[in-house]
Amino acid sequence: MTKNLKAKYMPKTEPHHRFLRACQGLPTDRVPIWIMRQAGRYLPEYMQVRREAGDFLSLCKNPELAAKVTWQPIERFGLDAAILFSDILVIPEAMGMGLNFGSGEGPILEPRIDAPGDVGRLRVPDPEKDLHYVMDAIQAIRALLEDRVPLIGFSGSPWTLATYMVEGGSSRTFSRVLGMLHERPEVMQSLLDRLVTAVTDYLNAQIRHGVQAVQIFDTWGGVLEQDEFLNVSLESIQRIIAGLDRIGPDGMPVPVILFAKGCGAHLEAMAQSGCQVVGLDWTTDIGQARERVAGKVALQGNMDPGLLRAAPEEIKREAERILRAYGPHPGHIFNLGHGIAPDCLPERVAVLVETVRGFSFSES
Ligand code: CP3
To answer: Which domain holds residue 340?
Structure first.
């Protein structure tokens, strides 16, 4: 009797989805897989919906079409998690900057942030109002998913967002943003502080509206010198993680995945940031990484996205090498080490997903 009552009224904290279980380091029937930038230009069905929407940003702002493209790679490949279709740069736009995805040359943010007054003019968005289309997309996606796979929300890290805001778009040299960091550190700090508040509010709103895990992308953390990565980028990420609501509206824990490209040397520090999962790029051996942080965090990764251009047998061999390098331990989520390229062939992606889905240690 007591046991039954307990079973009925105890909060349900152990998830059944293999992706969420792996995030918590719980055993799974097989290694879950999803792919960074899984919804995108390499899929002809995505290009069709993007044409219907008009352009990329209009697609992000149309909840029904955003839900449709979120679902496409799950339907085609049988992936284990969906990721919200949006972009990290909707935050600077909601803070008051003009955002344009010009054809070919990448995103343009204007006017770029330079003087202290520019930072002062940036507003901290109210996500329910200024980013309501993201919240509507989350609800539309959850309805479409019908709990078949969990939904991952995301944001850029303050440092990575700052690179786009100060450079006015993508950069090869990062000279303006590094110049600000070194020559006017107080301006950089006030920009990062504002972004910490904006990103914390934004991710908490995503959680309230139903995302079941969140990933923080620090795509440009690797541009920073070692101490700077720890004191500037990771420090601001830690403040965000400390401010997140870690239990979703369904009573389940919401794991945080930290992906910082080019930061394998800082694995131990990232594992102590409060996140549950560290995403690895392809330059770190995942077996050695596991030994460094075993029991502290789960690991996500880490195939070189460029290898998806290789022959099917080579893709299979590399995926199996990574699975064996991590070994038969819980807490591995298979992914690429960075986003999938637009010129990738969907058939090659299918080879990768089938290899991971079909892999078992008992047969190897
Ligand atoms: O499927 C998914 O992963 C979800 C959607 C998603 C997009 N961008 C869609 C997108 C996610 C998670 C992002 C994150 C993002 N956006 C990052 C961090 C991850 C990374 O790749 O490093 C960054 C740095 C951005 C900024 C950004 N968005 C750039 C520099 C560009 C232009 C370069 C490019 O790849 O075209 C984008 C555009 C973008 N974001 C596209 C998509 C599908 C392509 C837009 C199109 O359809 O033309």
So the answer is: 3-358
